[in-house]
């Protein structure tokens, strides 16, 4: 006698696809959440420092990542939203959102690397501090935080690439949360004409107790 089981063979292609989907999902969630957090944290740190000559003395200046460029922080928020939205859409929508997630990570990395040696924010501070619009910062130095932000962008990029490759295997939100999905109404119970309380309840629900 042969027995039929609903458990797939661990060596079957379906089981292998399921394992790949679970692993890629876990890695994408970890990389996406960690990448966005790292990028946001890095933009709040000091990226550059220098001095401005004020009244014959050296005035220290510092610039945070958000002072240098607002692109990494903005794209980190976009990437985090895209990571969540991946599970709210299906098919072509999931592919587009996954692409947005990958582009957000790439944009963070590119913006952070381009701004790693930028001095415009400190030059503006030097001009304000000295009262000379042509003043520039001196003794300029940069920290490693721009590269930390770039690493966060790479993690988001990896999450987006995983979503593009394996997103079709990932679960989606239940259909009851999708817009336009109406819940089926249960059929009304026949009203017993010999029970006045049921007649009144039917009238309260807007139903015709006579069944006409």
UniProtKB/TrEMBL annotation:
InterPro entries: Trp_biosyn_TM_oprn/chp (IPR019051), Trp_synth-assoc_CHP (IPR011746). Residues 180-212 are annotated as: Disordered. The chain crosses the membrane at residues 25-43, 69-88, 95-114, 144-164. Residues 189-212 have a biased composition (Basic and acidic residues). Coiled coil: none annotated. Keywords: Membrane, Transmembrane, Transmembrane helix. NCBIfam families: trp_oprn_chp. This is TIGR02234 family membrane protein. It comes from Streptomyces argyrophylli. The lineage of its organism: Bacteria, Bacillati, Actinomycetota, Actinomycetes, Kitasatosporales.
């Amino acid at each position: 006698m042969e027995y039929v089981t609903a458990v797939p063979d661990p060596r079957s292609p379906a089981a292998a696809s399921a394992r790949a989907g679970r692993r890629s999902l876990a890695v994408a969630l970890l990389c996406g959440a960690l990448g966005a957090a790292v990028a946001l944290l890095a933009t709040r740190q000091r990226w550059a420092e220098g001095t401005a000559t004020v009244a014959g003395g050296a005035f220290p200046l510092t610039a945070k990542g958000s002072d240098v460029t607002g692109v990494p922080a903005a794209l980190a928020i976009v990437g985090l939203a895209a990571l969540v939205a991946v599970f709210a859409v299906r098919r072509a929508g999931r592919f587009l959102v996954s692409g947005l997630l990958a582009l957000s990570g790439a944009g963070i990395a590119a913006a952070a690397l381009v701004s790693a040696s930028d001095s415009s924010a400190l030059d503006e501070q030097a001009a304000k501090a000295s009262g000379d619009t042509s003043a520039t910062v001196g003794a300029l130095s940069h920290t490693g935080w721009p590269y930390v932000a770039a690493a966060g962008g790479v993690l988001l990029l990896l999450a987006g690439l995983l979503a593009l490759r394996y997103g079709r295997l990932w679960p989606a939100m239940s259909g009851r949360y999708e817009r336009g999905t109406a819940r089926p109404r249960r059929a009304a119970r026949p009203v017993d004409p010999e029970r006045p309380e049921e007649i009144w309840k039917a009238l309260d629900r807007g139903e015709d107790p006579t069944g006409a």
